[in-house]
Amino acid sequence: MTEESSAPIAWDRRSLARWLLTRTRTVLPPLGASILFRIVGLVSGAAIIGLGTYAAASALGGTLSLGHVATLLVVLSLIKAFARYLEQFFGHYVAFKALATLRTYFFRRLEPQAPTATEGRRTGDLLSRATRDIDRIEVFFAHTLGPATTAVIVPLGMGVWLAAAVSVGVASAAVSCWLIVGLIFPLIESKRALGAARRLRHERGELAQHVTDSVQGACEIVAFGYEHRRRAEQDAWGERLRADQTTLGSIVALRRGLIAADCAATVSAIILVGAREVAAGAYGWYDLALAVGVVLGTLPAVTAVEEFSADLDQAFASAARVAQITEARPATPAPVRPVPLPDAARWGEDECPAVRIEDVTFSYAGGLEPAVRGITLDLPAGSTTAIVGASGSGKSTLAHLLARFYDPDEGRISIGGVDVRELADEDLRAAVGIVGQRPYLFNASIAENLRVATPEASDEHLLLACQRAALDPADFADGLDTQVGELGTAVSGGQRQRIAIARALLRDAPILILDEVTSQLDRETEAELSAALAELQRGRTTLIIAHRLETVQGADNVVVLDAGHVVAQGSLLDLAGNEQFRALANRD
Ligand SMILES: Nc1ncnc2c1ncn2[C@@H]1O[C@H](COP(=O)(O)OP(=O)(O)OP(=O)(O)O)[C@@H](O)[C@H]1O
């Protein structure tokens, strides 16, 4: 039984908001504090303006002395400043904590699924999702939740106060103005705005991808005179971005213009309604002035809805792009109750081989034909099995199925008698080591690249592994502290493979996959590496994928693949008469 992720979600705003809040539950208490201080700040702001207008009108007969008004204004200003500081402090704490949580979650979901999770996805686009899209979600936490809550609470409270302290007529005029500004205007062209925001996020991802591709392929671009076409493509993306930014900008401008007009109309409406009530003796001019001040002072609480709604569309568009990755169904789901892997020393007992591949068939998504079909193969403990075959015959696919980069569509693969789908991820990774054609070296020192396998390895351990991999630290300017450069460009192909072999030795996995380790090297370097490879294979169950038959000379069993099928297997001697094998040998 493996753990299935939730069913695909239709990412509308509500489900995205729920998803964001569920993923970042720990920020809810400080978020509450931020909202509380925002309410205090807004109410004091409204009171300051109200008192200001009241003070101006008190010459006409107010009940508060100007001295009292001045004292109150100072106190309210201090409260407002303090509340604003705390609101911003908690708001940004919430936002950055939530973003850090999301970033960790993004990599936690992506990394265990590597390399399948990144397959078919472009580096630049993924990078854009992991960085810019996650940053963009800040708007949701820092500038949306608080303003959205206070846009309801503050006007509601002020409306009740106006009705009680001034008049129902004035309160009704104010509330209708706030409703129009806070509820109706932000909805103007909202579908078009959301569409443009989504396209904008997509276009930014595409542009990031295009720039990444151009930087990585700079040599080819120059060598083939490809600059003009690349630049034209980039300009086209830039133009689409501009068009969507213009659409968003014009919608925002329209809404803001309408808000300004509505505010002016509201003041006129309140004065019209209030003037009649003042003339009728219901209250004084100073009360009406106070009401106008409070209505204007409350406006920031409602105009905030329009201010965050445009950015919120982009934050939701970004959240959807992040969720598409994190909530995608994993290619290799983790087992609900992992089965422990028996100790490698016991593999081979009860005639159970170290690795058993039983009737395995697998097709890549969108592949017309299965890449491997009906493969049955045993890898006895401590043996070396070589897989040979023409390009595209399914050799690497078989190795990747063993490492559980994918799960077979049919059949099963077991290690030490346990189906690999039942193994905990860390057990499987500890059991299977891989050295490929072009192992990835991080832009760090040789020592740090070696410690990728065992972080706690001492310098002595590293030196011993290097010695066994025929990697001499004296060949490098700074010994093991030598930096290998971006993508390992500061070391030769042979040195890179030796570093990878030393890394695999440190990892000490009982099963080893050597995927065309020497195919990128010249024959001289390949010959130099053979002793290091033999040292690496010693005592391990090894699967070698090979193009060149020299590499499989020491194999106990050679398996010939053709179009995903096993067409022959046996010792090199047994295979001498096999047609496909002879074709490979001749090509060699
Ligand atoms: N990630 C992938 N997505 C879709 N199809 C793939 C993928 N990887 C390999 N294939 C296809 O699966 C088939 C087997 O490929 P595989 O890489 O296993 O062959 P191979 O024998 O290792 O080839 P080579 O010797 O050239 O590395 C090929 O038809 C290939 O095009």
TrEMBL record:
Pfam families the record matches: ABC_membrane (PF00664), ABC_tran (PF00005)
Originating organism: Rarobacter faecitabidus
Occurrences of domain ABC transporter (ranges): 355-588
Record keywords: ATP-binding, Cell inner membrane, Cell membrane, Membrane, Nucleotide-binding, Transmembrane, Transmembrane helix, Transport
Official protein name in the record: Thiol reductant ABC exporter CydC subunit
Any one cellular-component term (Gene Ontology): plasma membrane
SMART domains from the UniProt entry: AAA
Annotated InterPro entries: AAA+_ATPase, ABC1_TM_dom, ABC1_TM_sf, ABC_CydC/D, ABC_transporter-like_ATP-bd, ABC_transporter-like_CS, P-loop_NTPase, Type_1_exporter
Chief localization: membrane
Alphabetical GO biological process terms: cell redox homeostasis; glutathione transmembrane transport
